[in-house]
Amino acid sequence: MNDDFALRTLAADALKTIARDEQIKSHISNSEELYPLLYRAARRYITGETKEDAVFQAVRLNMRGYATSLEYIGENVSDERECTESAKEFLRLIGMYGTAGRSSTISLDLSHIGMTVDEELAYRHLEELIREAAIYGMTIMISAEESFKASRIIGIYKRAASSYPNVGITLQAHLHRAESDMEEIKHFPGRIRIVKGAFRESEADGVPRSEHLKAKYLRLAETAIATGRPVSIATHDETIHREARERGLIALPNVEVEMLYGIRPDLLKGLKDDGYRTRIYLPYGKEWHLYFFHRLSEYPPNLYRAIADMAMPSGSEEMY
Ligand code: FAD
């Protein structure tokens, strides 16, 4: 292993640990110095603190030909009242974007709207959001969380998808269970989003970034696409995009490439300019700690960018 690679791996592991550290998160959130400083760097990956920021950005990007997916960021909320407040915020978001005459997918973590407290609470909130989204022709996309939550998430998705067509699910290719999850969900309706997976998992649960993971990702994408359901190839990995292009996958009418706001905008713009369907994932809110540190850990050179952004903040909107 060369020194650069070892250092990068060490930095990535440390950043993933920081991402999950509640004490550091609370310290940053409550600090009048640290929060604004880090927020300047986080702004590269989030649209702002309010839904107005997100909707403004989404409409701009719609006008440039991108579809969007909006998320009010948050996860692991253990207070029932807070979960209900989060669900209400999602309802207001759907209404605001919907009445602007736009249609987006709305992405959420089930642990943001109740799953940590009680699965039934999460289901009730999810159902309310699905119904509201249906009024505007929107889909609710359920995000993937750590592997220990996967069975509960799939269970809630299957229950909702049995009654509503406008709910979709995210599968993490890096998990060993991804193929069996795909078998379980493939006969239900709604969009399937395939991601590699952001959380650090043990060898017993997942595979690391590798050629093996890319092959696994492409196999899952092919299975999802063959169902005829809408599918998001949600990765910034250009080798996967290239392979998916060569196999004729991303030109299919049920397929789109979806990427996170602020990450490889050049790549997504190139795909859009070549005529492929593209979607940008636009998060907003004040709970950006985990999201931001995940983005740094996935590509440690982003640390240099973060330092530069703290001194000279620059958003990502002009890059699309
Ligand atoms: P990687 O192998 O990590 O990266 C491939 C290449 O992409 C890198 O070499 C680099 O060039 C570029 N790249 C990747 N990340 C960055 C970055 N941060 N900055 C700059 N360049 C980068 N994960 C979940 O666990 N649950 C979810 O619900 C979820 N939803 C997602 C939704 C969308 C639309 C997307 C795009 C991702 C989502 N993710 C989610 C994150 C995903 O699991 C990966 O962690 C993330 O996409 C990075 O992996 P990658 O596929 O880009 O491949």
Automatic annotation (TrEMBL):
Binds 1 FAD per subunit. It catalyses: L-proline + a quinone = (S)-1-pyrroline-5-carboxylate + a quinol + H(+). GO terms for molecular function: nucleotide binding; proline dehydrogenase activity. Keywords: FAD, Flavoprotein, Nucleotide-binding, Oxidoreductase, Proline metabolism. Residues 59-289 form the Proline dehydrogenase domain. Gene3D superfamilies: 3.20.20.220. InterPro entries: FAD-linked_oxidoreductase-like, PRODH_bac_arc, Proline_DH_dom, Proline_oxidase. SUPFAM superfamilies: FAD-linked oxidoreductase. Pfam families: Pro_dh. Its EC number is 1.5.5.2. The keyword Cytoplasm does not apply. GO terms for biological process: L-proline catabolic process to L-glutamate. Its cofactor is FAD. Pathway: Amino-acid degradation; L-proline degradation into L-glutamate; L-glutamate from L-proline: step 1/2. FAD binds at residues 172, 196-198, 235-236. The keyword Flavoprotein applies. This is proline dehydrogenase. It comes from Cohnella herbarum.
